[in-house]
Amino acid sequence: MTDIAGTRVRGAARWVRRGFVAPTVLVTVILGLYPLVFIIGAALTRSSLGKPFQEFVAFDQIAAAATDTSVVGALVRGVAYAIIVAIASTFLGTVTALALWRSALAGATARVILLLPLALPPVVVGVLWRLIFTPNGGLIDAVRRIVAPGTDPISFLSDPALAIVAIAIADIWEWAPLVTILVFAALLGIDREVMEAASLDGAHGLRLLREIAIPAVLGTIAATFVIRLVLALKVFDLVNVMTKGGPGDASSVPAWLVWKAAIEQFDVGRGAAITLLLAVVVTLITLPPILIARRSHG
């Protein structure tokens, strides 16, 4: 009888916990499911900005987007951009976190300074760096006049090869502090006794970082890389403010193409088709680092 009563109590407690969690799960499912259903429906039909789901066209729009050279080019460009930016942000952020951890600069003032780029809206960051890259009167142009007077100004945002590089620099400047803060927080969580024992065993300086600190926060570094990769894959604000996808299609990325198709050209169906292709690419690109991050945490 006691076992039966105990089983009933545990069962009742389990249902109570489910009851508390159910509203959150339901809201999450609805908020995630509705946009997904809408995007799939729009991709399979002729849909304009004002009149969605007009005519069922099956996979015609998806196939057209998948064979469109501008879309394929934007996907390839976006993936290459995201990987490079994520690697650079993770490396710089981790190095900065390690430097703060081993120095006297790890105070509140340093952390506030690091958080300033994160506090700025992406649109403001784009405007700021657009001014910095201005060929006549910008910060880089002012440095050029001092270092190499008489040389021609460099039009970063008008050069097909340099436009995407300029956006990447702004992107790294904005989000590398996020990596720094997350890795720095993980470093602060390392057991002091472990550090003291390593010091007694002769681990100092770079050896201490290589053998103790970095392995201890490797899971956090991998996780921040995944976060940074996802953020870079869906970059839009910086492109919109700094280059408008130009010159030509030199800095066109998938998120920009989705906005251009759905908002500028009122073709929601094409925008939804590109979105589905981007979702597939994002899944394929982020799955390996996610698995590595889980293994690192394990």
Number of strands: 2
CATH homologous superfamily identity of the largest domain: MetI-like
Residue share in β-strands: under 5%
Query: What is the overall shape?
Result: flat
Binned, the helix content reads over 70%
H-E order? HEEHHHHHHHHHHHH
Structural class: mainly alpha
Could you say how many structural domains there are in total? 2
Largest sheet: 2 strands, antiparallel
* Overall pLDDT score: 83
Strand order of the largest sheet: 1-2
Question: SSE layout and pairings?
Answer:
Layout: H1 2-43, E1 45-46, E2 55-56, H2 60-67, H3 69-101, H4 108-119, H5 122-132, H6 139-147, H7 163-188, H8 192-200, H9 205-216, H10 218-233, H11 237-242, H12 254-264, H13 268-297
Helix pairs in contact: 1-13, 2-13, 3-7, 3-10, 4-7, 5-7, 7-10, 10-13, 12-13
How would you describe the overall organization of this protein?
- This is Sugar ABC transporter permease.
- It is found in: Cell membrane.
- Its main location: membrane.
- Keywords: Cell membrane, Membrane, Transmembrane, Transmembrane helix, Transport.
- InterPro entries: ABC_transporter_permease (IPR051393), MetI-like (IPR000515), MetI-like_sf (IPR035906).
- This protein has helices spanning about 1-45, 60-65, 70-100, 110-120, 120-130, 140-145, 165-190, 190-200, 205-215, 220-235, 235-240, 255-265, 270-295; strands at about 45, 55.
- It has two domains: about 1-45; about 60-295, MetI-like (MetI-like fold), CATH 1.10.3720.10.
- A hairpin with an 8-residue loop joins strand 1 (about 45) and strand 2 (about 55).
- About 75% of the residues lie in helices and about 0% in strands.
- By secondary structure, it is mainly alpha-helical.
- A two-stranded antiparallel ribbon has the order 1-2.
- The chain is built from 13 helices and two strands.
- The longest helix has about 40 residues, at about 1-45.
- The model has no long low-confidence stretch (mean pLDDT about 85).
- Helix 2 (about 60-65) packs across helix 13 and helix 7 (about 165-190) runs antiparallel to helix 10 (about 220-235).
- The protein is flat, with a radius of gyration of 25 Å.
